[in-house]
Structures are given as structure tokens and as C-alpha cells.
Amino acid sequence: MLAPGEALVGSICDIAEYESSVHTLSLSGDFQATEKLKLTASILYNKAEDTWDWSFVDRMALDNVLIRGGAVDTGDAYDTADQNNLVDTYSDLSYEQYQLTAGGTYNFTEAFYTTASFTYDIFDMGEEYVYGDEDGTAYYGYVGFGYNF
User: Which residues contact 114 (CB under 8 A, 6 or more apart)?
Assistant: First the structure.
């Protein structure tokens, strides 16, 4: 505990335990199907997990903290009943992402070409976050023409 009149300087979150783990696997390749046609494909996998362990009891043990230059009682600084214990809940994140892409480039001449790509994206939330369940899929692509100078 701090003595009367003393204040803790630094992050109020120094006692919180936060861990983040992110892993990515990406495989891609291309294939020259003909002299003018090149095909491409890729697979991407992401897995992320984050945890924040912090209890209201730990927070109250801080007593006084220095906020904006003055000592403030932690009970006055935050809505402890509604916010502090929720940090554990909405800071435990977990998601997986799968992304499949296929495309190609066709050369009409040595300089003029067209290219196209299509991606299917899957996002799977293991834990709901502040905005709720963010599971979903997306389809997107592009078609373009180019000229090499």
C-alpha cells in the first residue's frame, strides 16, 4: 500500500497480465499454364488469441494513483463496479481466419495484359468482443488491364 500523500507513477495496468499469441501460415504458388497464361493460388491461415487477467481486488490494492498530475483514489477514477471486472471478459479474444485466393494473368502481347483474382475469406471468432459475434465470410475480386512500357 502507498503511504498517505504518495502516488504511483506509471501505468495503472502494470499489475495486469496480458498475453498475445498470433500465428500465420501462408502458402502460395504460381503455374505457367501456357506461354501467355500464368495462374496463381494462395492459402492463408491466421490464429490469434489474447488474454488479459486482472481482478477488481488487484485494482483496489493500488490505493492512490497519479492521474493528470494529481493523486486520485482509484475508487473515484473509474466506475469499478461496471468496468474493471469486465476487462477480463472483453479482452479475451480468439479468432481464426482462412483465406483462399485464385487468379491469373493473360498476356495479349508482350506489353498488354489482363489480370484477375478472386478471394474467399472466412473469419471465425472464438470469443465475442465488444461489438459482439464477428463471424463472417467475404467474397471479393478484381479484374484489371495493364500495359508495360
Answer: 105, 106, 108, 143, 144, 145, 146
In angstroms, what is the C-alpha Rg of the chain? 26
Q: Could you read off the pLDDT tens digit of each residue along the chain, which spans 149 residues?
A: 556 655 555 555 556 677 889 999 999 999 999 999 999 999 999 998 887 776 555 555 455 554 555 555 555 555 554 555 566 666 677 889 999 999 999 999 999 999 999 999 999 887 766 666 778 999 999 999 999 99
Q: What is the pTM of this model?
A: 0.64
Domain-located, residue 7:
no
Residue 3 lies inside a defined structural domain of this protein: no
Domain limits at 45?
17-147
Looking at the chain, the number of H-run helices and the number of E-run strands are 3, 7
Overall domain count for the chain: 1
Q: Which residues of 56-70 are buried (b: 16+ CB within 10 A; e: fewer)?
A: eeebeebbbbeeeee
First to last CA, the chain: 71
Neighbours of 141 (CB within 10 A): 12
CA 15, CA 6: separation in Å to the nearest integer? 18
